[in-house]
Amino acid sequence: MGLIHYLHAAADHAELNPTDYQCLLLLRFGGPLSPSEISQRLRLASGSTTVVIDRLETRGLVFRTSHPDDRRKRIVKCVDDLRGATGAGGTGMREAMTALHDRYSDAELATISGWLHQLSEVLLSMNGGPPEPRD
Fold it and tell me: Which of 5, 40, 70, 131 is deepest in the core (most CB within 10 A)?
C-alpha cells in the first residue's frame, strides 16, 4: 500500500496523473519504447496508451519519432530535461529521496534492492511473466 501512496504522491508532485507518471518513468528509465511496448508494460489498451502519450507530448515531456531500424514503426522518447516533471532536479523530491537513502548503509540498500527485485519477479510470475514484445 505504501508503494501506491508513493506513486500517487510523486505523480501529484509532478502534476501528472499516476498512469501518465508511470509512463513517463518507464520511458525515462527504460529507454525509448514503441506504443505497443508501453501498452504491454503498463497493461493498458492501445487506445489508452495513445491518450497517455498524447497528454505527455502536449506537456512537452515526450515525443514520437521514427524507429531507428524500421521506418514503418514509431517510438516514444523522453525529452532530455525532465527535472520539473519528475522532481529529479526540483525542490523536494530529490532531497527527500537522498535523505531517505542516507539513513541506510550500502549493505542495507543492497538487501532492500534484492527484496524489491525478488518481489517484482514474484508479481510478474503471478501475472504470467513479463509481457512479450509485440513489435
Answer: 40
Q: How would DSSP label each residue in 44-107?
A: --HHHHHHHHHHHHHTTSEEEEE-SS-TT-EEEEE-S--HHHHSSSSSSHHHHHHHHHHTS-HH
Cβ count near 19 (within 10 Å): 17
Neighbours of 47 (CB within 10 A): 9
> What integer is the mean pLDDT of 70-77?
90
In eight-state DSSP terms, residue 15 is T
* pLDDT at residue 12 tops 80: yes
Query: Which range (67-71, 107-111, 119-123) has the least confidence?
Result: 119-123
For residue 34, give the amino acid letter. Answer: S
Instruction: Name the residue among 57, 24, 33 with its Cα closest to residue 131.
Output: 33
pLDDT at res. 131: 54
| Residue 66 near residue 82, CB atoms below 8 Å | no
Q: Are 27 and 125 in contact (CB under 8 A)?
A: no
pLDDT of 87 above 50: no
